[in-house]
Amino acid sequence: MNQLIWRLHRQQVLFAGAALVALAVVLVVTGTTMAAHYHSALKVCATSRTCAELPDDLFQGDGFIIDLVSVTIIVPLLFGLFWGAPLVAKELEEGTQDLIWVQGVTRRRWMTSNVGWVLVAAVLWGAAMSALVTWWRGPEDVLRGGRFGVSFDITGLAPVAYAVFAVALGIAAGTLLKRVLPALATTLAGFAIVRASVGLWLRPRYLGPIRASLPLVNDASGAPPGAWVLSRVVVSPAGHIYDPVSPAGIPAACHAAFFNNSALSCLAAHGFRRLVTYQPAGRYWAFQGIEAAIFVALAAGLVTISYLAVLRRDA
């Protein structure tokens, strides 16, 4: 059975392996160069005390490669579309699984071999890609102030869990729909909906956010370095939220300042403060673990549904 699976899917494996090698070469070459520039710039700015300007000056000419690395966010979806969705759907659509089942290969063994190998491939490929991207983005994440945001979705444990989920979703869609094209469309839509829902709604609530009332010094968020700022508003001493679009509700003495862009300093003098809600940078790995667990659990449920659908098919 394992030899049959290899013959059926070796082109996909070889193509994915070649793509991984190409990505690794690009990331190692560019990452080594960018890391050298980063450490060299740190030594220079430490002497001149201009390190605060590094985020604006360093890597300005590397926009293309930075965008290319960010695009790896879609790689787990590609696993689901090209590995997961056709895996069972193509067999059921063409009826070739019946030939295997009547030759002494049970449905359970057939599913275990197919699903097991493709999930292992997704884990290995996803882990290798995540390790490369996590290493490559090290200096960039330090400069940009943390690993939440886009970096969260392409580094750490999350990409591996996304890949497993995408493959499981494709397998389940193909098993239930029994057609490749509908399975592809369902995988694409389902993956996008679940990822967006988790990222926008669930992720900010994994752990209770920290709320801090901070002095109104400047237009910075006021949160600790690397924190994921969920919201920031300016409030009056009475707790009313200041609307930066309208001068209504601010002291009369600050009305003139409102129109010459010096409102913040005037408001600070009248007791206004900044209320910031954020997730601290130290929770990155906790959030990675929680999100990975969610997607692995979803994948386990989808694989179970696929198993049951195949075992009970025409039975």
Tell me what the structure shows:
The protein has 315 residues and is mainly alpha-helical. It has three domains: 16-51; 69-208 and 284-315, no CATH class; 210-279, no CATH class. It is built from 13 helices and three strands; from the N terminus they run H-H-H-H-H-H-H-H-H-H-E-E-H-H-E-H. The chain has helices spanning 2-48, 54-57, 63-70, 75-94, 96-101, 107-136, 138-144, 150-154, 158-177, 180-202, 255-258, 263-269, 284-311, and strands spanning 210-215, 228-235, 273-279. A three-stranded antiparallel β-sheet has the order 1-3-2, with no helix packed on it. Helix 6 (107-136) runs antiparallel to helix 9 (158-177). The model has no long low-confidence stretch (mean pLDDT 81).
Task: Outline the secondary-structure elements.
Elements: H1 2-48, H2 54-57, H3 63-70, H4 75-94, H5 96-101, H6 107-136, H7 138-144, H8 150-154, H9 158-177, H10 180-202, E1 210-215, E2 228-235, H11 255-258, H12 263-269, E3 273-279, H13 284-311
Antiparallel strand pairs: 1-3, 2-3
Helix pairs in contact: 1-6, 4-6, 4-9, 4-10, 6-9, 6-13, 9-10, 9-13
Q: What is the residue-mean pLDDT, rounded to a whole number? A: 81
Strand order of the largest sheet: 1-3-2
* H/E element order: HHHHHHHHHHEEHHEH
Overall strand count = 3
- The proportion of strand residues reads 5-15%
The largest β sheet comes out as:
3 strands, antiparallel
Given as residue ranges, the uncertain stretches (5+ residues, pLDDT < 50) are none
List keywords for this structure.
3 domains; mainly alpha; 315 residues
